[in-house]
Specification:
Number of strands of chain A: 9
Structural class of chain B: mainly beta
Low-confidence stretches of chain B: none
Strand content of chain B: over 45%
Number of strands of chain B: 11
Number of helices of chain B: 0
Structural class of chain A: mainly beta
Shape of chain A: globular
Low-confidence stretches of chain A: none
Largest sheet of chain B: 7 strands, mixed
Oligomer: heterodimer
Distance between the termini of chain A: 35 Å
Helix content of chain B: under 10%
Largest sheet of chain A: 6 strands, mixed
Order of helices and strands of chain B: EEEEEEEEEEE
Radius of gyration of chain A: 13 Å
Chain lengths: 110, 121
Amino acid sequence: QPALTQPPSASGSPGQSVSISCTGGSSDVGAYNYVAWYQHHPGKAPKLIIYEVNKRPSGVPDRFSGSKSGSTASLTVSGLQAEDEADYYCSSYAGTNDYVFGTGTTVTVL
Amino acid sequence: QVQLVQSGAEVRKPGSSVNVSCKASGGSLNSYTISWVRQAPGQGLEWMGRIFPMIGVTNYAQKFQGRVTIIADKLTGSTYMELSGLRYEDTALYYCARPIPGSGSGGFDLWGQGTMVTVSS
């Protein structure tokens, strides 16, 4: 199962919004509403920030939002803060008990 | 609060096997699946497989079929991931992870601290 495609990098100034795309296909993102997003700081375990396309786990600020259209999912971080600087990964259930992650996007707060 | 506690770092020679453990601390995970995810240096996250400890059913990513074995010990609440035929490119940080309750396939909200496996001659 090939990895989902994400842009390598994204950036924004504090207070601005940044959006990250996650493109899959008809057997993963396009087929299931099981898209998740993770925030990953080097040396720490990934943190789930969005699940089932647009749901936020308890404790995740509403600055983080998710959406999906066809085979492309998106994560938007609004009101960018310095601590949002991290790597972000999407993932999707891919059927037949398989999961696939995205290639990862490094978000830089300018 | 439940935590996933993994075993310590390992160094192995090419061709050998490694066994990494993941134990639930502060609760039981028998009613959840436990997945294994790895990240090689400078690379992205990669799902390897999962087990449903309650019934012992496993699913493996095609890439790792035949090389990875995941087992669970219901009594101790531990799961184990064995990777055989190690190659230099298996050098990675290995995580165990649990899906968010109420959403079996929606996302992993509980992660172990990671176990570094280094393959070196």
